[in-house]
Amino acid sequence: MKALLTITLSLFALSSSTLSLAQEQQQSPADFVNPFVGTSNFGATHPGAQYPHALTSVAPFNVAFEHEKLNKFEKDAAWNSRVYIHENKFLTGFTHVNLSGVGCPELGVINIMPTAGDLELDAQKYGSTYSDEHAKPGYYQTTLDKYDIKAEATSTLRTGLSRYTFNAGQGNIILNLGLGLTNETGGSLKIVSDHEIEGSRTVGTFCYNPQDVRPVYFVARFSKPAKSLGTFKKMPKFTGVEGEWMQNNDSIKSYPNYRHVMSGDNIGAYMRFDTEAKQQIEVKVGISYVSIENARQNLATEQPTFAFDETRSKAKKAWNALLSRIEVQGSDNNKTLLYTGLYHSLIHPSIIQDVNGEYPIMSQQHTAQVGNTQGKNRYSVYSLWDTSRNLHPLLSLLYPEIQSQMVDSALAMYQESGWLPKWELLSMETQTMVGDPATAMIADTYLRGVDTFDIEQAYRAMQKSADTLNNNPIRPENQDYLTLGYVPVDDEEPYDGSVSTSLEYYVADFALGSLANALGHEQDALKYLTRAQGYRHLFDNDTGMLRPKKRSGEWPTPYDPELGRNFEPAPGYIEGNAWNYRFYVPFDIPGMIDLLGGDSRFIDALNATFATNNFDMGNEPDITYPYLFNYVSGQEHQTALNVQKLMAQHFTDQPAGLPGNDDAGTMSAWLVFSMLGIYPVSPGDMDYATSSTAFDKVTVHLDQAYYPGKTLLITPLAKDQKQPMLNNKTLTNGFVTHQQLTQGGSLKLLAPVE
Amino acid sequence: MKALLTITLSLFALSSSTLSLAQEQQQSPADFVNPFVGTSNFGATHPGAQYPHALTSVAPFNVAFEHEKLNKFEKDAAWNSRVYIHENKFLTGFTHVNLSGVGCPELGVINIMPTAGDLELDAQKYGSTYSDEHAKPGYYQTTLDKYDIKAEATSTLRTGLSRYTFNAGQGNIILNLGLGLTNETGGSLKIVSDHEIEGSRTVGTFCYNPQDVRPVYFVARFSKPAKSLGTFKKMPKFTGVEGEWMQNNDSIKSYPNYRHVMSGDNIGAYMRFDTEAKQQIEVKVGISYVSIENARQNLATEQPTFAFDETRSKAKKAWNALLSRIEVQGSDNNKTLLYTGLYHSLIHPSIIQDVNGEYPIMSQQHTAQVGNTQGKNRYSVYSLWDTSRNLHPLLSLLYPEIQSQMVDSALAMYQESGWLPKWELLSMETQTMVGDPATAMIADTYLRGVDTFDIEQAYRAMQKSADTLNNNPIRPENQDYLTLGYVPVDDEEPYDGSVSTSLEYYVADFALGSLANALGHEQDALKYLTRAQGYRHLFDNDTGMLRPKKRSGEWPTPYDPELGRNFEPAPGYIEGNAWNYRFYVPFDIPGMIDLLGGDSRFIDALNATFATNNFDMGNEPDITYPYLFNYVSGQEHQTALNVQKLMAQHFTDQPAGLPGNDDAGTMSAWLVFSMLGIYPVSPGDMDYATSSTAFDKVTVHLDQAYYPGKTLLITPLAKDQKQPMLNNKTLTNGFVTHQQLTQGGSLKLLAPVE
Predict the structure, then answer these.
(1) Has this prediction a pTM greater than 0.90?
(2) Among B68, B227, B242, B255, which residue's beta carbon has the most beta carbons within 10 A?
(3) Nearest by CB to A183, which of B215, B238, B260?
């Protein structure tokens, strides 16, 4: 639908050796990252130390216990999915497995806390306020006020390393398996020696659907042998005579020097040390989802000594290696926003395999079988309803070798469990959210030229999701969908989103049909692309909305398109209302324009969405909408204007600088694309809608193993120029294709409105 | 102090081959045992299947949950030390490690319950009433009314075997690690296959002093592979938003087909089967205190198949091998009382080593080290404050080879931990009760001629307890005791029993002094025997009581000798009042007679004890008192009369047929001795006081590896004869020595009063 573009290659390219030198002399991309962004306003990121796509991170944990003055948000009082909340002030340790930017409480366990003086084992009592916080990629530090202990953390892919600086006296380090962001309970530990503890903690049941769990295994080693040690456990509440006799009724009971295995809901271990002034004691923790032995091997391989500064330096280098794929010239504030956004886009999916390649396989039967990646990465934490929209396209553009392995992992899950993932966590399919986003993600990846995975197997997997009529965990109600052309509202268990589900199926079918075309499967292509057009069944000419429809073809009444705006249940819609989903056929906006009665009515409807506050920057279905102005010739400046406005309004260099949950990096990926000035309109559609770039110059280093171009340069046009240009040829509308961009060259976009 | 006795050997001896033949033709001793005796009136025995001195037993568990109509006694509402209470009616499974006759709640875990129909995992809901109970040594059966399932249990030394007979339909077997008599929590399990579960459960903190715990490991195997299986866990109570979202808030959550390790306070696993009418499914459980691997090896060795009937038969044979050391002629009722008493005397101490000889060593440092018995038994569960009085003397008389190994185990504990045991449980010193009873037990054993242990090491161990002034865990306040001659009341943390403690030290010192004499250590003998006389410091001439005394020598006032009668705290006395302890210098009753002002005053005081209801048959300090009449010439018939009266009053062939806690067999040992007509007056004193025998004829088969005699025959005198006779020579008073009896021969005792 868009005019052909003329392409000219840019000759500009900064060699990576020059870049490294430049980095040393000036601030590197990692230096601009502000890990506190997203730690307020429900962003659900954390400022802890982490590697890109790491299995382990070390995050400050400040969400346990209500506290009138210190803790505004308590982890269980609300649906809190955050290990760290900027407004909170009461810290109870550092957790070693953490999720970033998700919407349900999970992980946030293997909690280690340093204290001083007499041993207190009740976290509510040993917790402390903290100050002097500082965080950079791969490093976090703070000072625990109550004990005047400086706590620092860094990490490798599979190990955390903390360094605690004590004063003279008695230092204590407490490993608490009871505390956890997860609502799942249960752990087991054993003090192996005076400087080692091993064990496991149960996690899982993400969003409680389904109720599946897994153990996470750990080995913690201390840089100094403990002078004394022990375990502890919260005892239940006894009443009557036993309540009187129990020395630890409904309270913490300690087991000095206990060396056997200890299991329970709320257990822990402690190590005590005589400390001199400024004495540093380090704790390294190896994590595995396979076994204690693997956790120990991960630790031995990645952190054989206690090399804190070297580890911190390596982590920063690992971040810079990825962040520097984009080089920018512009304001420090914009650099911070961009690199922080890119940082948050490089956390999930995260690896799950151990250094020996072992990982827990995904099985419908929940068997505890172990697979081996044979040298590849096995990724986990697939929040595909979110990330299929823009995060994976971003990875395809910038890091195709990583995205390809993410597809590999998804295909391995298909091999193991029989189905592609939907919302996968630690090899568990959580069935969170709706649709068939793996199909959208995989087809999109291949169409972008990232084809280093088994496309034949992938195609079979996607077809299975698309065509299995019954007992289809990916596409429930697929028989109705295929028969009627939409998922009818009739059988909704209250509010499971028949419209939303249908729309996701159309998106997936469009992507699959486009892939079928590319693979030369013409009949398949026709079939799936026709299915994608089924959205027209749900278009209600009277309201101009995509509306829930009965099996009989009738519209159920009454109908309120505003219902669902505040996340209250709304028949037909998941996480949104009719407005939020109004234009959610991103693969066929021209078709939607037709349905709505032409360009003018479409622009009116689009404007009305923003004007009536029915646009939600914080949720995925509508995040493409600010870019939809491009579909009407002459309205492209509206896209630039709206995107700029939304960035200014929702994205800042502050803890509240994300518009709600980062959604495993989806919001951040939106920001990264938007700051570059391009946005992928739909999975399977190779068009990027253009807006304005936030920088004086952007250099994207392309991976030449995948793309013909070496670099893509993006710069702003002069203020009076209103037509974007690719390689000095005018783009006659506001779109440019992925294939054009990955040829490399120079893209000139509208100057920002000031 | 007693006159010399003339000895004549009895020629009577029934050969053991003749005995076996006789057993086959008529009821064997085991057939007379009623395992329900002691399951009411706080006896704390259980009717479950068990081997003599076994590590494992399989007991019905009916003490969970309050139930207005069904469960009169709930395990946590009172200080309940019983897995099974006869009055209760609500059964929630069968437990595989159990204590017998103790006074604190411990063990009662590894709980397995069969159910039928839909799967219910909440024990409060799946529990059932039961009927048609039957129990014999090594066998228990009942029918679960709710499911019409016949449940049978038998066992070997280290394994339990249950057989459940289902109806046609759906059968379920639930392993619940949450339920437990112990107040300790926490377990871990893993479903290994469709017919095997392994795991561990924490137990310990017996009487909460000190707070030490241990894991008990298990492997459970099923005779039929499960059709479906899973684990479950009790979830905590969440409030607010999370409470609304949680599908299993404050309730049981199941994890179908979960195969990873699961840990927690309240967890379990289930196996489900399609069953035909009368289908029997068996579950065998191997137990170990060392490791899961050892539990599996115990199971493979002792129960390689599912040989229920053979196992039951072997268990009965093992019991008969021990019970038949005493043969009797008399009423069936008396046979039941005697053999049930002997059965209860042969449960603790019980073995703790695995088939490979491994056991958890006793360490002050709680290190999880493992020892190896090298073919011997390692005994555990030493309730020595109780059992040193009569149970170990009974074992020395009847089973010297067993008693010798019990001393060996106590000495191994000394080697491992530095101290002899006091109240040892699973290689943990619980420090329950007072005194130095291991010294009394070991010295007594040696003096009885059971000398097949390392007496030199034993003597060093006993001297360490006796002579270590400070930090002496066996004899706290030993410095005061040695300086003043008694433990002063001054430093009592309210009511820790200065008089009781002193009296126990005197008893131990008497035994140790007597041993020193026997070993030729004359100076030591003088020292310890002199110490034993220290009781005179506590004798208050005004009240005629052994009374708490201050360090200054003053008696604290006010003073009420009745205080403590109902187990309320009484300064100076543990578990009793001044009356209960009044004559508790069993090694020197003649001395006490002198202090009290002569025979007549002594007899008056003794009679007053019984007359004023200040004698407590259910507690140890005074259980020798009915025999003390023998110390006054001409009063011997009073002993016979009192003992007969107490037996009739407190010991019956009924669930309430024990006078309170059996105290690890101490009450039962009292009954056995009393029915024979002899009673060991004091540890270290080789005199038995005689009373009357309850039988027409008693034949005690002596162990000729230890004793010169082959059999000891006890018969009643004619009613008009008032002087007991040994080998047809009149005993001039009511005593006979252990050495006399173990020569073998014929003892004729007073005829029972009718």
Answers:
(1) yes
(2) B255
(3) B238
